[in-house]
């Protein structure tokens, strides 16, 4: 599942006539509808991949893909958890957006991670060691309390604070992910507006013709079968939000 495939899948939904109406998203339960975009179904098939694309506009959720049952199936969030990790760390003053996380010269999984970086730069590069350091600062007790307070997924983090989002026990469904990120997009999570704005700025992927795409990838490489994510939202020129979770 590469970047270009992901972008095509998301873009094809908008070209297929997806409409948006802006409203508060936390007033009533979401309405879930099975979508009928055969192009998306075909692309998953052609890539020999089982997947679902969950789209939320206001309170309506549409499901697309060739494995719609995945929408309500729990998976480890992998690096999509960096969004919540950053929110918790900033809200509880365990770091700030200007702090430089130092690289101490150790070998890392990717050479792009082998440098000093801010939390925002680490978000762009999906640098696991930086967010593991932040998780250790937050600590097991506070992390568990905050994950439960937000109600993220099954809210289970186990006894190791720096890898529960990579190998479990924390798990989340694509529907839960899209509802979480929709609330973040609308600045409606129970964190300060400033903290949510700072994290949203870290997630900007692309801006073109008045459209902004925000998102976070995730890839669980240490479990079988592996799991890939892209979770985020599109902000349209009129300010309307379409949230998505690709799994």
UniProtKB/TrEMBL annotation:
Can you name the source organism? Answer: Acinetobacter baumannii
**Entry-linked PROSITE patterns:** PROKAR_LIPOPROTEIN
- Where the record annotates domain Penicillin-binding protein transpeptidase, the positions are 48-246
This protein's record includes keyword Protein biosynthesis: no
Q: Where is it found, in Gene Ontology cellular component terms?
A: plasma membrane
Report the enzyme's class at the first EC level: hydrolase
Q: What are the alphabetically sorted keywords of the record?
A: Antibiotic resistance, Hydrolase, Signal
Q: What is this protein called?
A: beta-lactamase
Q: Name one GO biological process term.
A: cell wall organization
**Family listed:** Belongs to the class-D beta-lactamase family.
What Enzyme Commission number does this protein have? 3.5.2.6
Domain of life of the organism encoding this protein: Bacteria
Q: Which Pfam family would be a valid example here?
A: Transpeptidase
Q: Which InterPro entries match?
A: Beta-lactam/transpept (IPR050515), Beta-lactam/transpept-like (IPR012338), PCN-bd_Tpept (IPR001460)
Name one molecular function that GO assigns to this entry. penicillin binding
Q: Which reaction(s) does its UniProt entry say it catalyses?
A: a beta-lactam + H2O = a substituted beta-amino acid
